[in-house]
Amino acid sequence: MPSKVLIDPDVDLVFNYYKHLFPNFSVHHALIYKFLWRVEPIGGEDIINQSGVSKATVYRILHDLCSSGLVEKTNFKPISYYAINPIKNYNSNLKQLLKKLEKGSNELEKIMDNSTSLSGELYLVKRDGGQQRLLLKQNRSLLNDSQQLLELKRVIDEQLKETDKTRIKGYVAYK
Question: What is the DSSP letter of 142?
Fold first, then answer.
């Protein structure tokens, strides 16, 4: 890796912005992509000479950049490469990523809503000081509503009475 890659803050900035859009985007990708932000196309050999990156790496990265739609190559010889409107391209890719993330968020929300393990059940959490809190399992929020707590207490008391009746019937049948 050439030392100027580590020193050039622009390359570092390009890398930090693009690595989220393209997970396989490396510092070398950023360096070569930035070289292509010129008015005139530049050839692969010129990129190799100016960047100090190996020939195989440069051509692999050029292929990656072309495949991702960031760069195009000329149709005449000698073949040269150029970046296609970097700002417009970045914004377009960013919008696609945001749509994908939003869709993923919606899908996860649907899964959580349909999950039987998170169906509004309650659980008691004991804290270090011996305090106890009743939480809703679905969203892990503290149950504070006194009306809900009273209703919950009533239901629990009824279930305990039913359990006691069943236990007494079992005890009587055992005698």
Answer: B
Query: So what's the architecture of 3-89 in CATH?
Result: Orthogonal Bundle (1.10)
Residue 121: strand, helix, or coil: coil
How do residues 28-75 score in pLDDT, each as one tens digit? 999 999 989 988 999 999 999 988 899 999 999 999 999 999 999 998
Helix (H) or strand (E) holding 98: helix 86-114
Domain residue spans of the chain: 3-89, 116-144, 151-175
Q: How far apart are CA 73 and CA 65, in angstroms?
A: 10
**What is the rounded CA–CA span in Å between residue 9 and residue 95?**
25
User: Residue 91 and residue 94: Cα distance in Å, rounded?
Assistant: 5
Encoding tokens for residue 162? Answer: 């039913």
Name the residue type at position 54. Answer: S
Looking at the DSSP assignment, which residues form a beta bridge with residue 73?
81
For the whole prediction, is pTM greater than 0.70? Answer: no
Helix axes 9-18, 27-35, angle to 10 degrees: 110
